[in-house]
């Protein structure tokens, strides 16, 4: 019997067990709001007070599904007038960050690059994704999102009435962390933001250039007057032209000094913010909008003080978001096994992730870092020193040591997926697929041995296939028998054990 015909006879218009990856699973979209892992609420936390969480799970245990459900809940809350608004940042594409570090190191083997990753690099990458969204909400841009920040006119008016320190902090964040683009475009956004926030002061380079040009024009004009004989041609007559030239020389010197300082500051920003895709020209164009008094403090100090500086910038960002009615930031940290330099190696994943596992980072007010990590990292975590645990304080971070699923939970999940695939007049259930002699407890026990959704779906898919391979279409379907259940269960338990021992692919 064809499996599609078998499922149609049970009131299903699709196979609820075909999908193995949440992102390519159409059935998941229909059930994700109705069925969630028992630890979902603990990991998500209170949206009004974002907090960090660290989750370890096997491949196929539902980490991607968990993340997609987070994104849905946060999006709904942002759209709901009575809900808490939260800025969501995905920190899951590490290849650009690692490539930038390698470039600054003038090459280097993968292990050396990963060992060089610091908490500052991660925080720079997060700020570089969050700040452009905030700037877009005020001056406009391609990522403008009114569901988080409200209408642009309201956000702009709100920030204009904020105190001076907050407006200056926002401009500093923009100058350093705005979206990567050409220097002209980034600098233009800095100018627009400074004018929008009604901030005074900018680099003396432009003023010095204007004064120099004006003095040269005055000196030339006066010289023409002298040469035409309109005034006496002695030293008294030429004195004003000399004074104008002297003033031009002073202004030019001041401009050169300011330009040199600006370029030096931009070079420092380029070196210390090494993970950003910003050239020196981009930083120069932005930093030109800073007042001379603020230029020295505009960029991060050298390590190790740079780490505290970046935490302070995260606090600035959270405070500014609060002014706009946004409760905080949720950062989704996922796919740590996928970067080219990591290639799924647990030791390399450790080098990439561990810098963030520090209590002062995980407990930043208004910032919730949600780690969705492969289970292999839990084994490495258990081998860490007591000093590491004192710094990380994972007992305070909503730690889920293993994303587990009981047989009963998987049974309910499979039932929910069947209902999502049901035709309008049908009311299918998982037990309706089995012979009447098969007890519900046997099916739950079999699912319990699968331990996670992906393996449960593979098991049920193979079970249906095995059952249908022994039926003729014209036969009356008695349901899946106990021997078939036992046979397929044994195969999949063995397959799972071989996967865990690394003897076969998942």
Which stretches are low in confidence, meaning pLDDT under 50 for 5 or more residues running?
none
Share in β-strands: 5-15%
Biggest sheet, strands in spatial order? 2-3-4-1-5
Q: So what's the overall shape?
A: elongated
Order of helices and strands: HHHEHEHHHHHHHHHHHHEHHEHHEHHHH
Counting DSSP E segments of at least 2 residues, the number of strands comes to: 5
Q: Which secondary-structure class do the elements indicate?
A: mainly alpha
Percent of residues in helices = 55-70%
The DSSP helix count reads 24
Q: Please give the CATH class of the domain at 38-118 and 303-400.
A: Alpha Beta
For the sheet with most strands, the description reads: 5 strands, parallel
Secondary-structure arrangement, i.e. CATH architecture of the domain at 38-118 and 303-400: 3-Layer(aba) Sandwich
Instruction: State the end-to-end CA separation.
Output: 28 Å
Please tell me how large the radius of gyration is.
Answer: 31 Å
Provide mean pLDDT, rounded: 86
* CATH fold assignment of the domain at 38-118 and 303-400: Rossmann fold
Structural overview:
The chain is mainly alpha-helical and about 500 residues long. The protein is built from 24 helices and five strands. The chain has helices spanning about 5-10, 25-30, 40-45, 65-80, 95-105, 110-115, 120-140, 145-150, 150-160, 165-175, 185-195, 205-225, 235-270, 280-285, 290-295, 305-325, 345-355, 360, 375-380, 385-390, 405-420, 440-450, 455-470, 480-500; strands spanning about 55, 85-90, 330-335, 365-375, 400. It has a five-stranded parallel β-sheet with strand order 2-3-4-1-5, sandwiched between helices. The longest helix has about 40 residues, at about 235-270. About 40% of the residues are buried. The model has no long low-confidence stretch (mean pLDDT about 85).
């Amino acid at each position: 019997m064809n499996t599609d015909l078998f499922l149609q006879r049970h009131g299903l218009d699709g196979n609820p067990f075909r999908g193995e990856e949440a992102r390519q699973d159409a059935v998941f979209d229909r059930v994700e709001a109705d069925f969630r892992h028992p630890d979902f609420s603990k990991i998500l936390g209170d949206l009004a007070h974002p907090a960090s969480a660290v989750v370890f799970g096997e491949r196929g245990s539902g980490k991607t599904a968990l993340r997609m459900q987070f994104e849905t809940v946060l999006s709904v809350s942002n759209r709901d007038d009575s809900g808490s608004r939260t800025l969501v940042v995905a920190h899951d594409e590490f290849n650009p960050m690692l490539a930038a570090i390698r470039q600054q190191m003038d090459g280097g083997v993968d292990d050396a690059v990963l060992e060089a990753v610091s908490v500052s690099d991660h925080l720079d990458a997060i700020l570089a994704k969050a700040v452009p969204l905030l700037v877009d909400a005020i001056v406009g841009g391609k990522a403008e999102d009114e569901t988080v920040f409200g209408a642009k006119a309201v956000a702009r008016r709100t920030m204009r009435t904020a105190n001076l320190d907050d407006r200056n902090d926002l401009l500093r964040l923009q100058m350093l962390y705005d979206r990567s683009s050409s220097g002209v475009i980034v600098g233009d956004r800095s100018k627009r933001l400074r004018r929008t926030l009604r901030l005074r002061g900018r680099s003396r380079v432009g003023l010095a250039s204007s004064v120099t040009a004006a003095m040269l024009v005055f000196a030339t004009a006066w010289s023409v007057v002298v040469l035409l004989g309109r005034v006496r041609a002695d030293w008294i007559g030429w004195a004003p032209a000399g004074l104008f030239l002297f003033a031009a020389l002073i202004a030019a010197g001041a401009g050169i000094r300011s330009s040199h300082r600006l370029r030096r500051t931009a070079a420092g920003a380029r070196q210390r913010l090494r993970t950003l895709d910003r050239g020196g020209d981009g930083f120069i164009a932005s930093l030109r909008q800073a007042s001379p008094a603020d230029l020295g403090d505009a960029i991060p100090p050298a390590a190790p003080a740079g780490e505290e500086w970046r935490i302070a910038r995260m606090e600035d960002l959270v405070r500014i978001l609060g002014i706009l009615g946004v409760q905080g930031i949720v950062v989704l940290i996922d796919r740590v096994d996928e970067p080219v330099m990591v290639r799924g190696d647990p030791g390399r994943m450790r080098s990439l992730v561990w810098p963030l596992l520090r209590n002062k980072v995980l407990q930043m007010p208004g910032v919730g870092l949600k780690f969705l990590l492969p289970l292999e990292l839990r084994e490495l975590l258990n081998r860490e020193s007591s000093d590491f645990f004192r710094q990380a304080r994972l007992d305070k971070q909503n730690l889920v040591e293993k994303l587990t699923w009981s047989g009963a939970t998987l049974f309910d999940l499979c039932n929910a997926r069947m209902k999502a695939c049901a035709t309008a007049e049908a009311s299918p259930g998982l037990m309706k697929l089995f012979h009447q002699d098969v007890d519900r407890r046997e099916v739950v026990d079999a699912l319990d041995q699968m331990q996670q959704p992906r393996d449960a779906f593979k098991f049920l898919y193979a079970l249906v296939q095995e059952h249908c391979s022994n039926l003729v279409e014209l036969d009356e379907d008695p349901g899946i028998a106990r021997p078939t259940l036992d046979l397929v269960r044994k195969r999949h338990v063995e397959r799972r054990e071989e996967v865990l021992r690394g003897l076969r692919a998942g």
